[in-house]
Amino acid sequence: MESICSLPKSTGWRLQLRYLVAFLGFLGAMVDYIVRYSISVAIVAMVNSTHPVNNASHANNTCQAALNVTDEAGDAEYEGAGEYNWTIQQQGIILGTFFWGYFITKSSGGRISELLGARETMAVSLGASGLLSLLCPAAAHVHPLALAGVRLVMGLVQGPANPALYSVLSRWSPPDEMATLVTLAYSGIAGGSLVALGASGWVVNLLGWRWIFWGGGILALAWTPVWLFFVRNSPEQHPLISRAELELLADTLHVKPRVSSSVSLTGTRSG
After folding, report:
1. Distance CA 3, CA 7 (A)
2. How distant, in Å, are the alpha carbons of 14, 105, 178, 235 from that of 172?
3. CA of 32: how far to CAs of 69, 144, 167, 204, in Å?
4. Crossing angle for the helix pair 178-207 and 39-46, nearest 10 degrees?
């Protein structure tokens, strides 16, 4: 009887690695945006919105009884708010510095991927973002500008992530599946935004605002080794790929067309 080891590689079911790469890209994009946008909800719980009501700002003809009711309602509404007395300007700087850094490296993300490798660029981007997210509560305790600085660096390291992901997918997608796999991976952006803005309030109520940063950081750090283990920059470098899938992806492995050695560059046959 023929042994199992002698069967061709294409026999039986094997994991289609290109779908796994796209799925991990989806998770990566999702974690990227969770880390990026969770602060939009967290900062509401971080900032102390209790404010004294200045009676002088009301019109002189305002009924005093109505004014007292308004003041009491306002005190009840804002009592027990966040621990930091940051101004609106400081909050704006904290929320905006991420995009200052992101703008700088997003435009050069493709070149960074070429130099470091797209797989490695994606891993460094999310791994570093995870570490920085873990540092955010400590930075906020030091000074609002310290938190803004951490967010600035986070923007710098996240800028190359999207170009790097597309570079990986371009090598792992057959021409007739390119749109599907890219759409699947980048739909993680919408998923991450939904989770960041939808679940952060629940996390604040249950665990406290610090876990918004810690949770996103842990997710990013957990995703990074999985990505590095299962993904390679090119299918031909992957030790687990099947012969059938490698043949399917052969057309995507080389950007430049091959020129036959029997044909010269001028179009005439050599020899």
Report:
1. 7
2. 16, 24, 8, 6
3. 45, 23, 17, 20
4. 10
